[in-house]
Model the fold of this input.
Amino acid sequence: MLNQLNRQFHLLKCSLTFWKEALRLPAPQTWDDGSNTVIDESPYHKLRLFRAKGLKRHKECIFLYPPHAGRHPNITNNLIHACQDDGFDVYVFEILAATWFTKDLDLEGLTRLGAKCYSLIKRKKILIGVCQGVWLSILVANRIEDKPVAQFVFAGPVDFWAGNGFIKKKCELIPPEFMDIAAFMSGGLQSGSTQWWNFTSGDLKAVFYDDYAKLWDLIIAGKDISEWINNHGWYYSPQHLSQWFFQATKWLFIENRLKDMVDFKKFGWPLRIFVGGKDAITPPEQTLAMQNWVSSNNVKAYIFKKCGHTASFCKPEPLAQMIEDLRLISPAKEIKCNAYRAAGNHKRMAA
Done:
């Protein structure tokens, strides 16, 4: 009898926790939290520096183009922290959520702005593109004169017609002219709610059942739910996109014109490709195609068979492989202990 009462009490407690978290309003998604320094900004963007940590430093720095597909790019926090912890300064190009005053940013303007920020940093740079940041990093690399030391790409489309992902299937049903009409009808602003539904409709069961079933399983098992809370808050915090979104959808996703827009023969630097074997958003073939287009003879591709889309740039296994390759390309140097302590004392005195 007592065991039955304890079990019922446990289920009641778990149910209350479940509904509390399931109905929780999303936390604000921001990088304005003191974790970084803004190097350059405009109404359209912020260039942020996440400084290296620890007793080692790399001469080269990371320049990251994160995804901007209707949500905050802090989905790359694990990748940024992994690089920081290994001694890399990480510069991040953040496109701010569009407003009616900034909706005029087109694809040419976005590429020009991304290249300008890249050129502001007068150091040797390792270029990283993640998800929808991959094609932007490629457009920027094609334009700049200061070529990167190496390029890392994670789960981003390069050949948009390869594989059999749900985004490709949707785009096959859309005539190119529709994006011009959509841009006109929406006033040049892609609303965050529309973009949220575009992704959600690809797998309704995963969003409205599987996600909450996972929360319930975690609660029943007494496991940590902080990661679920963070991911859930991120997913339900959509952001507006400006004019470049309609052009990128038409020219890249529907017409597959990236190879025509970029001279991949100029890409002679080391290239590392990271994809998830279970990625239904960006099938591995879409990213792996890049290895056949570049002129570099130093190319490695990694397929993480158990990883889906975000797992390929968030989970420990691909991040550990990334760090291993970064260290080979950019060996770290130990900071002298006295100098490190002096720097720490200086910061404390200044505070």
